[in-house]
Design goal:
Helix content: 25-40%
Structural class: alpha/beta
Number of helices: 21
Shape: globular
Largest sheet: 9 strands, mixed
Length: 550
């Protein structure tokens, strides 16, 4: 998990060079491999691949506090097709922990369908499946400046669904069980951000725009402005969650980042450095993942200490709501559900409910099944659910199924809730994507009572499956769900972050559930809503064109 803005971490100063290992997979050169033959060693030095030629690199040398900058690159020849490199720390289906991975797995494909040459670059984590690695093509090797030393870079390419993916290989940084949560995350993603530029040289791909996402790639705009300085290149930075900012000790300036002394102020913030702050200051344009969230982060209560920086850069901030992958989330052909159904034939929906009840060991009854699929952390409104659920279960003939992991005291509460209501509750404390599909399809009511929600995908997926959302009016929830309590709408919306307001929203939904004709009409309405990426991709394309024209 990425560290929160309030926390600070000391970055360990490292002096050892990265050690690489050799692996062979299906006769191909694969993740973590270092060239061992003389020919491959030469390729590493010259920046050329034994499989493909690469453009020679203009290298930065960094020593202590004195940095020799690369000469400004002349503008690359412009082509009619807009070129975008989408830099992300995670991407579905390769390696992901949440919403950013879902966006990275869907938006680039939608942009490609809109005529953009959009390619994705991400780290080659240990958890990337072997079946994916077998399809990769080795592009070449190079080295990446990490302050005063240089670290190995291997680059692999894969094409899937018309999108080109680049994978940055360095086992020292990325051969680990998880994606985040390590003491040296600052160094790992500083390396990755700089590797983006080196990878462009190896691949011979020179984008008009690098689209950066969250603090893990926030140094890309900083490096572009302070060290790399590609004249043809612009940067866009998207805030997926401003609470996680990449905040570290100022020691990191010399030990891992290596900016010129005159540029350190871009990252300095208070008594530490803040990577997101640097990205906000340096990017040509800033987006958030919903229009409401773009307005909310100007409020000190929602900016987690970055309100002065947000205000300073307010003129380049806009909000574009996320979409969902409507091919992945399709009740008419979902491979994980017991039956298929659509807005024109809901019979499979009720079969999915019975299958879900059977799968989790609940009585197969014709009752409302309240569901929740969420990380168990405070911003998701877990405290409100804890406040109301015992009394709700005691007073109503309902069932409740929750899926997710998170803070231990939340996990323990829901395990206890199941013990107290054994024939009504199942607490599934796990991350299980196939099971989440079963819950979306089998559920009646979906709880999304977030304290803050930059966009949220759960509520849109719920609509797609006829699992009617109960949401708090905040961020992307406010932009995607309209209240139907008094008539037309797509869900049940409450405004105050209180247990009482959530309780009222849930009981309103339960009362409507018993009005079967109205409830089926609501399900059909929600299932027909367009939450695809098409409209969002059009907005991003408009933004990209605006940025490169400035």
């Amino acid at each position: 998990m990425a560290e929160k803005a309030k926390g600070k971490k000391e970055i360990s100063k490292k002096t050892e060079e990265t050690k690489e290992t050799e692996t062979k997979v299906s006769g191909k050169k694969t993740a973590g491999t270092k060239a061992s033959s003389k020919k491959k060693a030469a390729a590493s030095k010259t920046g050329t691949s034994t499989k493909r030629k690469t453009v020679s690199r203009s290298k930065s040398t960094v020593s202590g506090k004195t940095t020799k900058r690369s000469p400004a690159r002349k503008a690359a020849p412009k082509e009619a097709r807009l070129k975008v490199l989408f830099a992300t720390s995670e991407c579905v289906p390769f390696a992901s922990t949440g919403g950013l991975g879902e966006v990275a797995g869907s938006l680039p494909a939608a942009l490609v369908n809109s005529g953009v040459d959009c390619r994705v670059i991400m780290p080659l984590y240990e958890k990337v499946p072997q079946s994916v690695r077998d399809k990769m093509v080795f592009m070449g090797t190079g080295t990446v400046p990490v302050a005063w030393r240089r670290q190995y870079l291997g680059l692999f390419e894969m094409k899937q669904n018309n999108v080109t993916y680049y994978f940055v290989d360095n086992e020292y940084y990325f051969k680990r069980a998880g994606l985040y949560g390590y003491y040296d995350d600052g160094e790992r993603f500083s390396y990755f951000s700089r590797a983006v530029f080196e990878a462009m040289e190896i691949a011979g791909f020179y984008p008009d725009i690098i689209h950066c996402n969250d603090w893990q790639t926030a140094l890309v705009p900083v490096f572009q402005n302070s060290l790399v300085r590609r004249e043809y290149l612009k940067t866009v930075f998207t805030i997926h969650n401003i609470e996680y900012q990449g905040q570290y000790s100022t020691d990191a300036l010399d030990s891992i980042i290596g900016l010129p002394n005159s540029e350190n102020h871009v990252l300095e913030y208070g008594d530490c450095i803040n990577l997101m702050k640097g990205g906000l200051e340096c990017a040509n344009a800033i987006t958030t993942v919903s229009p409401t969230y773009a307005r909310e982060i100007f409020d000190p209560a929602n900016s987690f200490g970055l309100e002065p920086i947000i205000s300073k850069n307010g003129g380049k901030i806009s909000g574009i709501v996320n979409g969902i992958n409507t091919q992945l989330y399709d009740p008419a052909k979902d491979p994980y559900t017991a039956a298929h159904y659509s807005s024109s034939d809901l019979s499979g929906k009720y079969e999915c409910r019975r299958a879900l009840q059977s799968a989790v060991g609940l009585p197969e009854k014709d009752v409302p099944v309240i569901t929740m699929i969420s990380r168990l952390v405070p911003p998701k409104g877990i405290d409100l659910v804890m406040e109301i659920m015992d009394s709700l279960l005691a007073s109503r003939d309902i069932q409740f199924i929750i899926l997710g992991t998170g803070e231990s005291h939340y996990e323990d509460f829901f395990r206890g809730l199941q013990e107290r209501h054994q024939d009504k509750v199942r607490a599934l404390i796990q991350f299980n994507a196939p099971l989440s599909h079963m819950i979306y399809a089998g559920g009646s009511i979906l709880l999304v009572p977030s304290r803050s929600e930059p966009c949220g995908l759960t509520q849109m997926i719920g609509c797609r499956y006829g699992n009617i959302p109960v949401v708090r009016q905040t961020g992307g929830l406010a932009d995607t769900i309209t209240d139907c309590t008094l008539g037309d709408g797509s869900g049940f919306v409450f405004s105050q972050f209180t247990g009482e307001d959530l309780y009222n929203g849930v009981t309103n939904a339960l009362d409507r559930w018993y009005q079967r004709d109205d409830w089926e009409a609501l399900m059909k309405h929600d299932m027909d809503l367009d939450f695809s990426w098409n409209a969002s991709a059009a907005e991003y394309l408009k933004l990209y064109k605006q940025v490169i024209s400035e």
